[in-house]
Amino acid sequence: MDRMQESIKKHAKQFSSINDLDPLIQQIGEAKYVLLGESSHGTSEFYTLRAELTKKLITEKGFSIISVEGDWPACQNINRYIKGYGQPKQNVKEVLETFERWPTWMWANHEMIGLIEWLKDYNQQSNQNIGFYGIDVYSLWESLDEIIHYLEKTQSPELETARKAFSCFETYNRNHESYAVSAGYLSENCTNESLQLLSSIQKNKWKYQDDFEGSLNMEVNALVTAHAEEYYRIMVRSDSESWNIRDRHMAEAIEAIINYYGDDAKIIIWEHNTHVGDARATDMKEEGMINVGQLLRERHPKKDVYIVGFGTYSGTVIASREWGLNFQITEVPPAQYGSWEYLMHLNGEFNQFLLFTDEHRYEFDNTIGHRAIGVVYQPEYEHFGNYVPSQMGERYDAFLFIDQTTALNPLVLEKIIF
Fold this sequence. Notes:
Pfam families: Erythro_esteras (PF05139). This is Erythromycin esterase family protein. The protein has about 425 residues and is α/β, with parallel strands linked by helices. The protein has 2 domains: about 1-135 and about 265-415, 3-Layer(aba) Sandwich (EreA/ChaN-like  fold); about 140-260. It has 16 helices and 11 strands. The chain has helices at about 1-10, 20-30, 45-60, 70-85, 90-95, 110-125, 140-155, 160-170, 175-185, 190-205, 215-235, 240-260, 275, 290-300, 340-345, 390-395; strands at about 15, 35, 65-70, 130-135, 265-270, 305-320, 330, 350-355, 365-370, 385-390, 400-405.
């Protein structure tokens, strides 16, 4: 611990404004994939800081895509709003109200409003087409709805294939748990139908090209359908493999977006640290688990991928005590003794950033506990599983530390429990 503490003291720098992070922007260089993490889904400062970094990457480094850990159909409403496609929602709050899947607070929050409005204005004033996309796997039914609606509207020959898939899934009344049990234990599934739909749409995606990204929308919704089917079928039997299916899907969705925009496109990826920080530098590797950060590093040159982790020492967070329950403002206790966050706090009770360079990564190769807070959080039990053993210099390319953080501000305030 003494060695790690000395290395933090030597290399960490204090910051108080976004301009203090210019060395990070410079270090990113010409990377095409910049992954911005978070150690919780309910911390205000993580969202606002990522938003400011995103703006700088767009204006100073030419990034044109933002992808987030959210549903594709709901995020398409943000994409249409900031681009003025079709008949977008009238205002940003109407857009965010379309996020109905729990936990809605991840994207339907006040912190997102400023970034979305900035993106809309930037696209209009600069004649740019910055895009905003959700790359998660959960929107099985919503993605099927999008596919059916588009094919009906265009009277496409692929409509029959889509209806067969829809008819198969319809039996489960839009209930993921029912499908998971039936497919996982009873071998009654819609695997063939979803794969046939994906194959048909990928083969014919050129037919869906229009002024509103129809081909991309159809392709990713088909990917979601096939991968969500696999995810729910496997989840009742294997947590680690269902995790891998989800992260492979997110990596594939990222590549589909990049391919649509062209080889020169650059993408910013917002996800939890557990998805962006290279799994090979954690105990996830021992459990056979992979993640998006690892996959992108494996598939692309080192200079093209840059990963930034985020963390805090203490404060408050929006989370729920059980899956699906109302959220509440929860105290984040001081970080565990000897953890990464503890050592960062020990270095100074202020905000810090640390760039891991090839010259000194080795100084951070000791395994250390690194806190991760999910949408379900019970702080009194966090020492049982909220610290991920990590080699920080290999897991990330940089780390941003906010010493004291505050809870996110969801739009639906009446659901907050104090």
